[in-house]
Amino acid sequence: MSTFRHQYNPIPNDSGQSEEIPLVSFKRKPIRRICQCPHFVLAEIGEKEKLQPSHPRFGPFYREDESEVSGKKAAWDKILEKSPDNKNKTLESYLSAMRRIEKEARDAYGGDKILYNYNLTQSEFRWMMIQDGCFFLLLALLILGVSPNQLGYPDKHIIFGKKDNEEDVKRWIESMFFVGNQIPLVVLNELMKQSFLQAIVQRVKNWEIPSDLSKKILYNLLVLPALEYANNQVTITSPLPVDLLDALHRLMIGPGDLISMDLVENETTEDDLEAGAEKGYSKGDISISATELSKKGIHFGIVEEGGCTEIDFKDYFLFPRLYLPTFTVDDDTELLCKSLKYYEISQKHCNGEGKMSQVMRSYLQFMNDLICTYEDVKILEKRGIIRANNPYTKEKLPMMLNKLAGKDKKTTTHKLHMLRIKLRDYNIAPWEKFKIVAILLFVFTVIQTFLAALSYIKPPK
Fold first, then answer.
1. Where are the transmembrane segments (predicted)?
2. 115-130 burial string, b = 16+ CB within 10 Å, else e?
3. pLDDT: which is higher, 88 or 317
4. What is the phi-psi region of residue 280: left when phi exceeds 0, alpha when psi lies from -120 to 50, beta otherwise?
5. Are 231 and 365 part of one and the same domain?
6. pLDDT given at position 231
7. Same domain, yes or no: 249 and 275
8. What is the dihedral of CA 337, 61, 107, 172, to 10 degrees?
9. What is the overall mean pLDDT for the chain?
10. 13-27, 117-131, 200-214, 347-361 — which is least confidently predicted?
């Protein structure tokens, strides 16, 4: 398939001059930003997991080998055709929207250097955001179940037509969650306020909240704000995620964010094993699988609000409980987890966010230790921790986790390291606790009987 470097040429206004209006600046730069996947990561992941020529490109980083049949022109032409206003007014509406948030959009890519590094003028950057953003949104709406006819396309359209299989949809999702292949959320939300996309959102009468994590992210970040905007309802979220991967990462790690996330290498060291041997443990006793923990009398609970940074162990007397966030298993789980691992590496590489660089990797290693067999899956599913949309994805979860975490260097956060030690050293069988309770009840009964007999023999005066 032939490729070309996609050009974002400014569309001339009524006077014949290119649209080159100074941007409007506001707000501070985000701590996180959209970063290109580092070359050493691309070399590690292999050819199959890289962006292929058939994958859509969004933003500046990967557009040099974009497919000739990208669909961006088709998307933009449809918007011009179907928008209620004339073409010039529609153009000005989109350009005005981009001027309002352009500084924030550029900051999402690292600031003004994105223009110099990729030889873009301010106007070209704006058109890239408009064309790529509109293309992204039309694909997202198709993924969420909007029909081609509702978008204004025939069922047999080569890109936006009805799909006989899920291969195209899977490829779109892979592209949307590939590190660096992102459009800032502030751009997407602003485009969703335009009349053409607002009309599509309103045309769908009963939106269903998806169960798949990738689709749920698209719905919550794109459709829900558009519906609230249409109904004059404003939900303030602070801070607004930079892009889809940032939002997904925040969802997975929870509000605890990066507190106590210092890293510890080789969580099960020889010193740990020697310390365990002194207590009578062997290497086989340090397993923290759900089955082994259940045998120790440890129960499982759900972290109601939060993600993997909220994992905790409470040593209640009779019912010790390990609290875990829900883990959604669907067709895209492996893809999203891989993307989050590479996302953390890219943030460390270009932003220096060292504390976040291993949080997801550490979490996946912990889940890999916890879920070794299908029996472990069933135990956690019964408690509502594992949520699977079909039996096949649920059955392959142990293999998937092993694939995600098995080859990684054993590096974990300090919190999960200490938690492993607690779980390993917890060795009070449930019957031992009930034996203690039985002894206490027996002693209490003897005392009560003695006092009753004493009051009978020597009644109070």
1. 436-457
2. beebebebbbbbbbbb
3. 88
4. left
5. no
6. 83
7. no
8. -50
9. 79
10. 13-27
